[in-house]
């Protein structure tokens, strides 16, 4: 089915990296390559992906454009600047697309994404038009009030930790962003507000997001097969 429907990826990497000592974490070295390279390489190599948009901070645009040339990322059609919030960055990326049926939105700070996660996401989204990578929560979760007192313990079997890629039919995610009122922590939340059903599909516990130097070290271990 996907061979006849154009599929794009929007890779968001415009975060400020406050917990990385102020550096632009997306270019932090990971096993000899800038962090961004790991995720873009996977989407470049995946035969289900036709086009890639990379969203960076304004300060990093030139470096990103240089990487596109250096790595010969032929599928990258645009490197654009993000907004103050992630949601605005995704919207900027989506605005560069107009001829695709499917869109995968992925955090550039998740370097251990795989082609399997991409394929599984597209297959999961086929029915409802929306699917999100996620893993079952392994810790017990407590609900707390503003003073830190426990209000309840939701059943763990119904709790999932959401990741990216998040996969959407283009018309659905475009509508969700155009009608967005207020901010959401992920794109799926915007789609939920419109009443669409979203399918969770199995992500990977290795598919971590880099937010601290410790995460970067852990990713290095996982890449070496030590996780």
Output the CATH homologous superfamily.
Spore Coat Polysaccharide Biosynthesis Protein SpsA, Chain A
Q: Indicate the CATH topology.
A: Spore Coat Polysaccharide Biosynthesis Protein SpsA, Chain A
User: Largest sheet, order of strands side by side?
Assistant: 5-4-1-6-10-7-11
Query: What is the class in the CATH system?
Result: Alpha Beta
As a percent range, the share of strand residues is 15-25%
Helix and strand element order: EEEHEHEHEHEEEEHHEH
The low-pLDDT segments are none
Q: What coarse outline follows from CA principal-axis ratios?
A: globular
Tell me the Rg in angstroms: 17 Å
Tell me roughly what share of residues is in helical segments.
25-40%
Total helix count? 7
Mean pLDDT: 93
CATH architecture: Alpha-Beta Complex
Termini separation comes to 35 Å
Structural class: alpha/beta
| Biggest beta-sheet profile | 7 strands, mixed
Give the beta-strand count. Answer: 11
> Total domains, how many?
1
